[in-house]
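User:
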Amino acid sequence: MKALKNTVFTIFVFMSLIFTNSLTLTNVDTSAGTLDVYMENTDVVGGFQFGLAGVSITGASGGSAQDAGFTVSTSAATVLGFSFTGATIPAGEGTLVSVTFDGFVDSICLDGLVMSSSAGTALDFEVGDCYSVTFGCTDDTACNYNADAMEDDGSCAYEEDCAGECGGDAVIDDCGVCDGGNADMDCAGECGGTAEVDCAGTCEGDAALDACGVCEGGETDPNNCFENNTLYLDWNADGDLDVYMYNIDPVAGFQFNLSGVTLSGASGGSADAAGFSVSTSAATVLGFSFTGATIEPGNGLLTTVSFTVNEDEFQACLEGVVMSDTSGAALDFDLGDCETVVSLSGCTDSSACNYNEFANEDDSSCWYAGVDNDYCDCDMNVNDCLGECGGTAEVDCAGVCDGDSEEDCLGVCGGTAEEDCAGVCEGDAVADACGECNGTETNPDNCYENNTLWMELNNDGNVDVWMYNLDSVAGFQFDLSSDLDGFTINDVSGGTAEDAGFQLNSNSTTVLAFSLTGATIEPGLGLLTTVDVDLGDDPNGFIYMEDIVFSTSGGVQMEFDVFDELMVGTPPYVDVSISYADEMMAQVHISSTTDIAGFQFDLSAISDDDIDLGSAYGGLAEEAGFEISSNESGTVVGFSLTGATIPPSDGILIELDYFMMGSYAIFSLDNVIFSDSDGEAIPMGVGGEVVVGELPPVPEAPTGLTATLSNMVDVELCWPWTDYAEYHTVYRDGQAIGNTQEICFNDNGLDYDTSYIYWITASNVMGESEASDTAEVTTEAEPFDPNPPRNLEAEAGDEQVQLSWDLPSGGGGGSFPECPDGSAEYADCVGTCFNNADCASGGYDCCVDDGNCSDIDGNGQITDWLGDGYCDDGTWGMVYLCDEYGNDCGDCGTDEDPLGICDGEIFECECPGGINNFTIGSTDLDDDGTDDDCYTAADGTISNYFYLNWEGCNISDIYWGIDEVFENGGSFGNFGPGLIFYGFGPNETYQMMVIACAGEDGEVQSDIAIGTTGADCGSRSEPAVAVHLIKDFNPSNNNTREEITGYNIYRGPVSEAYDLLDSVDGNTTEYLDEGLTNGETYYYVVTAVYDGSIESEYSNEASATPMPFEAPVPENLTASSGDSVVDLQWSEIEIIVGDVIGAECDGCADTGSGCVFDCELQCVDAATAYSWVGDGYCDDGAYGMYLVCEEFDNDGGDCGGDGFGDGNGKEFYHAYNSNTREEAFVGYNVYRALNSGGPYSLLAEIMGQETSYQDSEVNNGTMYYYVVTSQFEETESAYSNEAGAAPMGSISITLDEEGGCRFCYTRKERVLYWRFCQASW
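Assistant: Predicted structure:
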């Protein structure tokens, strides 16, 4: 097996004792797209250039070229290498350069080779063989095994046929001949016999072909023969269509459509004769036989069709034809031409110049060349003065046919008077050094705005390349191509390139020049070089300059304006221009070297008023019989319906009428197209502008500019109109923001609290004025959007409603925890409040992506702190290590995201688009236009670096090595493209690779890239990534200007209809509305007041219905009797926490000791409350708490004396007042009666939540009935359920068989209650 399966193909190069210069391809790996160019050289190499046919080059590096310090650059087709320092590659052998490529098909060949010595002379080099893949059978057991095949193509065969061909299909026929195909057997089956089949297919039959080749067809006239089955039409004298058929095969059925007409019937012909059933629809004719009859081969009328002609039609055409044989198979039929089926008037004489093939009525319009006209042919050409039809010879002003005498501008035949550049006959205006008429420039170096390159043909027939350069040129390359047959470059020499000591090299299409000493061509204007060319046998055409590369001494490519076309001789060409124009008409002039079959152009105009275009007429176009049309937009089109052309000419092509309403107009030709008879565009040149009227002066600077602010951020600018202005341009802070033909301009939607400086200019066709005086305006501060309170709740009580609400939101709008005090948007995991913009720096757009982040750095993506590779555990100022922030999306080592904050990104790394176009090199770090060798790290160390760039997803791992890419590396973080990887030394060459999703199922690796560091930067360190993300938390407060100073409480009897009820200060978030009517529903909203004047929108609405206080009824009362006692049990009533003074509550500003209700049921801090008891100050509400009640020991006696004076640092402390109940719970009342249902008498009062009672004041045998109530301060509940019991001593009873009582007796073992034995007592 020798198949390599597209792996690495290696050509071993052996060095002989004596070798010549050669270049060879080695180590070709078509899968990886890499190869080495191996060079053997006995001569020193100072520069090289080569191409690779068969692939597209993507890069080149390494080898002896890199070792020598050569600058190596590539295009898709070329590799170029040379040194700016004069370095050379010494004699020897080895890899010249390694090349990367793509697009391999089946071969790669070195081509376009130019190798130069240190003196710039071309070196002779032999070129090695092309690399190609040979396909074939690679199985050596096959009979067609190909030892040279590199890849199996599936062609292997293992047996030979009778002819000895491996894998062949030849077999021995019935006559014993190999691959004979029974050719020696006649139709009777006899080998070597003479029997033949006749035309009817009968062996030894007598059927014969007729004159048309139809078997037994009977045709004797070959003029009636057709080569193929044919169907055609003829409009008969009766106005019907005859459908004729010539058929070689029997026809068993047919169907066809006729376009342009509506059918009404079909009959007659061979279809009728054969007994076919023929039917029609509006467009289709169908014919077949029910008996199996056929129309035999022949030529004749198939059927006649009657019809009416469709509107706007005049021809009938056969379409959709299906003709079938006896087996139902379709027969191929040729179709005849369409048939004219209406009376069309026109010239019917085919010898006439205006013959109309569609006309069927002659209208006597026929005309003939030379008959009653001067035309010499049907193209309306006339004989010139030499008698040549269509010739261009004319009698000159001296009366000589085809003479060359011309009138000068004074009208003198043969005179010498000429117009000057201003168009004045015998005037003295001249063009300056830049070609401007009456200009004043004397230095041609000032005639160009940019670097410029152009070609001229010199007297020796060679190409002079001229250059105007603003910057020094250190090297250049360009190609010359041409449509001239045989065009080629022979040599290149001379000019400023040679003067500067450049090495000048060329091949048949390319010119290459550079300096081995670092010399440059200084700025200026001059001949760059002369290219010796062969113009071929017919030097009439164009030369084009292409693939131009000019570089500075820093290797930076220069931008050039290039006149890339040079006309040689008189190729097909049209020069078109406006030769004359006034207020009413313009003339378009052409000078052409070829026939023109059509043209189109737009007449464009710049004017201070409208121009109405009229008609286009006359000139060479009308003389040639062109159809000329134009529209109001200025488009003119000309062509011939007869195929006539405008011969090579120098004259007026056409004239155009218009009406110019303004004082001036500048006319030009745009969108110009000239075409030849084949429809191909003719190369052309278009003249410049033509001015009609007097151009205005450049306007003076505008005056009177005013700027008016409205709607806080909208600016209206106004000014008086400036004389001669056609429009005004508005500038804001130095940037043009719009043009207007009005005297006011609106600039709306500006930033808040920002100053802007405006000015305007006036412009017309002559230019732009100086700037006006400026107008400055400052927009107003951004209006505060006051947020309303949140979560308003209303809880009803007895004749009162308790309201409570939360502070307004900080305005985040995302799903993250809001700042509880409203001072910012969000709060992190430890309660630190922040605004999202606090993190917008250092490459970040915001702290957390809440859907409202702006792309601050304009890189097309939002970058926040979550999932950025840095653990936000407080190190950077924020803590995001909690569920509400997705546990920092994996940055801190946890993959828990129960709330879905990270959208699954921390669980699975994906890089669906891959990592593409990975490159390593250097970059411009200091924005001076030149790539830098050294990088200064944050610690001040300076080292060499690599600039890593790619397309695709973020990467985490970087690997690098000299011989193998995985020698060094690992994870460096989470980074996007454009990395500075620093810490390296000088002139170090590495392979590098970057990896995304390392170690996961979706791991993606980049291609390997090779790079070399630059000059020595002084130090090296452990390689590291210069992080372009800098975490910087800058806390701000978006409420520094607006502070909550109070709340307004609104109440209404119906929803959404409120009146102001009361106001509280900004520290209060509750309100008790008292004195209400029980049973009525009240609706509430609250607003926040900022800075004492800015009121927010309403909060959410809350409603409540006050009801009288009802003490809860005890439940589940039971009574059990004993000897002279009754035991009662009931369930404890439910009391809402907070209804009891001194009980625990929720809602105060807890300092860690818990909260309790004071004597007025305010929820206060427990530690503070108990510390104030007995402190010498009476807590009767003066300090915010109420502690004068038994539960607080009556404030420890503080309210009975003078205390210790005022102050003592006591502060108002108030967090929450329940007040949902008016009364505190006292205990239970127990009632007893002797009869069920009462009346009951109070038996006992139980304090607190004791839920049992023993009644010992009872008599055995007496039935007692009990109820219980709950007792509050002023309200007693309704009775509980009734429970009864009868106390008694111990008795025994005996039961009869029926379960009744028979007698009672004392027995301790059986104790039965009175209800079982009542009948026996």
